[in-house]
Amino acid sequence: MKLNFRFLLTLLALAGCMASVHAATFDDFNDGIDDGWTRYNPVPGTYSFPKESGSVAYKMASPWGSLLSPGRIGSINMKEPAHTKFHVEADLLNWTYNWGEDIGLLARMQEPVPSHFLPKGYALILRNDKNGDPASRRLMIVKSLGGIIPPIFLTGEQGRWMKPAPDPSGDYRLKFWSEDGFLWGQIIDKSTGAAIMMWDGAKYKDRISAAEDGVYPSGRSGLIAYVHIVRRKAEGVSPTFDNFYSGTEAPPATPNRLPRQP
C-alpha cells in the first residue's frame, strides 16, 4: 500500500509539472503559420509573416474601416487555458506612422469573441495619436466592455510623456501582468534593455498600473490593434509582433520582477 501511495504521489507530481509546462505559450512565428491562434478579423484585414529585425515575425493589418465599424484586427492565443493570474509579453517591431491607432496585448479576454467592435477583456495599449506626433504617444491599460462601447481607460494620467517616445523604426517589448491586486504594464526599449520612463502627472515611472476591478476574473491572452480615429480615409493599423509569451508567471529568461516604484 505504501508503494502504491508513493507511486500515486509521483504521478500527481509529474502531472503538476506537465500542467505547469502546458500552462505557458511561446511563439516566435518562425514556422510562418499561426496554428493555435484564432484570428479576430471582422473588417477584414490581412495576416502575414514578414522578416523583421532579422527573424520571421507576425504582421496584422486592418484598413481604416468606418465610424460604425472601425478598423480592428487581433489574434487570440488558444494554446493554453484561460488564466486568472497572467503574464503576457511580445516584441513590437513595427507599426504604421498613421495616427489614431491603438496596438498591444490582450489578457483575460472573454469568449465567445464578438464580431462587432472589440472583445471583452483587458488590454495593454500603445496609443499613437494626434497626427503621429511622438510626444502624444502613451501606454495605457484599458478595459473593453465589448459591443460599441469605447474602451475604458484604467490608468488615468499614467503613461504620458514617454522618454524616449517609442518610434516605429525601433524594437520594443510590451509586458502586461497581474500581481498583488493590480494590473501592470511596461514597454522596454530592446536596443538598451531599459524600460521607457512615463509621466504619471507627478513624476516619471518605469511602469503603469490599475487596480483589479473584478469585472473579468479570468480569460485568454492575445494580440490586438484597432483604429480609434477614422476621420481620414488613409488611416489603418498594421503592427508587427514577435516572440509572444503568455503564462501565469514571467518567463525565466526575461523576468520583470523589478523593484516596486514608491
Describe this structure in words.
- The chain has 262 residues and is mainly beta.
- Helix content is 8%, strand content 40%.
- It is built from 1 helix and 21 strands.
- It has one helix spanning 2-22, and strands at residues 25-27, 37-40, 46-48, 51-52, 55-56, 58-61, 72-77, 87-94, 101-109, 121-128, 138-144, 152-153, 160-163, 172-179, 182-189, 194-195, 197-199, 204-205, 208-211, 220-227, 240-247.
- Strands 1, 3, 6, 8, 14, 15, 16, 19 and 21 form a 9-stranded antiparallel β-sheet that branches. Strands 2-7-20-9-10-11-12 form a 7-stranded antiparallel β-sheet, with no helix packed on it. A 3-stranded antiparallel β-sheet has the order 13-17-18, with no helix packed on it.
- A hairpin with a 7-residue loop joins strand 11 and strand 12 (152-153).
- The longest helix has 21 residues, at 2-22.
- The chain is globular.
